[in-house]
Amino acid sequence: MIAFVSMFIAAFLAPEAMAVIGGDLNCTTYNGTAFVYAPAAVACSNTISDASCAVLYPAANTLYPAAGNDAQRAYACYTTATATPAAVVADMKAAALANCPKTCGFCCQTDAYNCRNADYPRLNCATITLSQCNSVAWRSIIASDCPSACGFCLSGGCVDAVTNCGNDLSICQTVGMQDFVNTYCQKTCGRCPSSTTSASSVTTSTGTCTSYIADSSTSCAAWAANGFCSNTFYTLAQRRARCATTCRIC
């Protein structure tokens, strides 16, 4: 009887908690009392300026999504409605994801954060902190085992162990620095281990084709430059679904 009462109370309270954040509960977690934003909800940066996002998606109650709070999402982040309950409108959400994912609390669903982690990671992916994401000791391990925790989903499992390698690209060719760049600047200096064939040789079992389905992402050119098309960190099906034309996958 007590268990039934507890379940009834939880069911009664849940709609109220849901109404705070809005009709789309992605990137949130239930803390026992209310739905709150998970850290990954605001881990990324907006594509356009924060000021522009504030104009496009004004905070309903002067409070924007942040890890652990339950601020109401701006309706324009996910719907054309002006009151809850509101149905999710795919085009509205796609625009928010493309331009203002942090302002809308949708970072966990962006391409950089939305991927599968290793089945048996060397650390707990759910407890990774921002300092670990930027740590020399952890970055490479996280990129391989827990890429969704730090926005490494498009890295192909390879990142720079230090974050400032790109400040001086001449380091990649500097005599006496090669041991350093081979260890700490693999991404920037093109020293990532490769166990794949080139993208141009990837075909399906039916052989070489002359036409390809359209890319579903506008970021394919940038991803291809970073090795997305040829790195088997992603399955062939995943690469085909996102960037079939750019990667020339049948």
From TrEMBL:
ShKT domain sequence ranges: 107-153, 158-192, 209-250
Disulfide bonds: C158-C192
Signal peptide residue numbers: 1-19
UniProt-recorded name of the protein: ShKT domain-containing protein
InterPro entries: ShKT_dom
Keyword Cytoplasm: no
Keywords: Disulfide bond, Signal
Keyword flag Iron-sulfur: no
Organism: Caenorhabditis tropicalis
Coiled-coil features, chain-numbered ranges: none
